[in-house]
Amino acid sequence: MNSHIVVIEDEPALLQMITDVLDAEGYTVTSVPYPSLNVTAWPRHVDLFLLDLMLPGHSGTETAAWLGEHGFRRVPKICMSASSQILREAAASSLFDAVMPKPFDLSELTAAIHRLLDSHVGDLLA
Amino acid sequence: MNSSARPRHLHLFGRRRNEQTSAQRLPENVLGGVEHGVRKQIMATICVINYDLSLGTMLADLLADRGMDRVVSCSGNDAYHRLAQGDIDLVIVDLMTKMPESGWDVLTYMQMHPQLRRLPAIVCSAVTDELLSKEAWLHQHNISILEKPFELDEFYQCVDTALGRATPASA
After folding, report:
1. What is the pLDDT of residue B10?
2. Inter-axis angle of helices B76-83 and A12-24, nearest 10
3. Tens-level pLDDT at each residue, chain A (126 residues)
4. Helix/strand/coil percentages in chain A, nearest 5
5. How far apart are CA B110 and CA B115, in angstroms?
6. DSSP letter string over chain B?
7. Crossing angle, helix A106-125 and helix A12-24, to 10 degrees?
8. In this structure, are strands B90-94 and B121-126 parallel, antiparallel, or unpaired?
9. Minimal-distance CA residue of chain A relative to B135
10. Any CB–CB contact under 8 A between B133 and chain A?
11. How near does any CA of chain A get to the CA of B108, in Å?
12. What's the CA gap between B43 and B90, in Å, rounded?
């Protein structure tokens, strides 16, 4: 079964592009155009979240905590941001499993996703 | 124009050997006759994406004043649509110093896009820790940095270098 990735991003064109390239890589992707966080429309099973940390109105950590409250606490999360300070804070928060500094390229994105999905499967099998 | 003088991105942009850039498709009377240094130059299509509203369209105006290239100026909101049209030879992203996120988003978009990822680009920005932390990555991805403030000649040279043009100093 393909891994299911939920992408949350407020820039519509970038959201669509990330969705398209991950779909082409063989993932099942649900794109969430922030701030439409309608969790009832999401799949019940999510393998990974890819989350922009510069969402207007909320900090990334608030959004990550919100995901935890909605049953996704143990799902791996990659946060994206251009701000190294925000990424440092995210890495220190333990709410995220990996950080992606913007800008990034396709190979960097897919490598981070592969790494995280593989390690998460390893954790589940251990 | 011989192959050795061809801008380097033409080899990287995924075109077949007999395909032309938007510049090469223009009529000869538009392309020819422009002397810069010792070589004739080819008109390129340059997209200037403005995020620094305090500068407005300054970069686009400077390029338009030089008269060598076709200049397309767009704001952050319509940049994605403009880039997707596929006729751009160089992208200049004018970062807003206090809120550079949108500019980095458009560069991420370009890196995801199969036809845009090898397009040369210039990031125009004040020197910040943020910019310095991305410097190596930008160079690896064929993205030049133009530090604000800059001299006019410095700007033109940065554009010509990104387009693979000979400059008077190096010709």
Report:
1. 31
2. 40
3. 689 999 999 899 999 999 999 999 999 999 998 777 778 888 889 999 999 987 666 777 788 888 888 889 999 999 999 988 888 888 888 899 999 999 999 999 999 999 999 987 655 555
4. 45, 20, 35
5. 8
6. --GGGS-THHHHTT--TT---HHHHS-HHHHTT-EETTEE----EEEEEE--TTTTTHHHHHHHHHTSSEEEEEEHHHHHHHHTTS--SEEEEE--SS-THHHHHHHHHHHHSTTTTTS-EEEEEE--HHHHHHHHHHHHTTEEEEEES--HHHHHHHHHHHTT---TTT-
7. 60
8. parallel
9. A103
10. yes
11. 5
12. 11
Write out the two tokens for B62.
């400077």
ipTM, interface predicted TM-score of the complex? 0.91
Cβ-based contacts of B101 with chain A (< 8 Å): 54, 81-83, 102
pTM: 0.82
CB contact residues (below 8 A), chain B span 37-66, against chain A = none
Please count the other Cβ atoms lying within 10 Å of the Cβ belonging to residue A78. Answer: 21
Chain B residue at shortest CA distance from A22: B112
Strand, coil or helix: what is A36?
coil
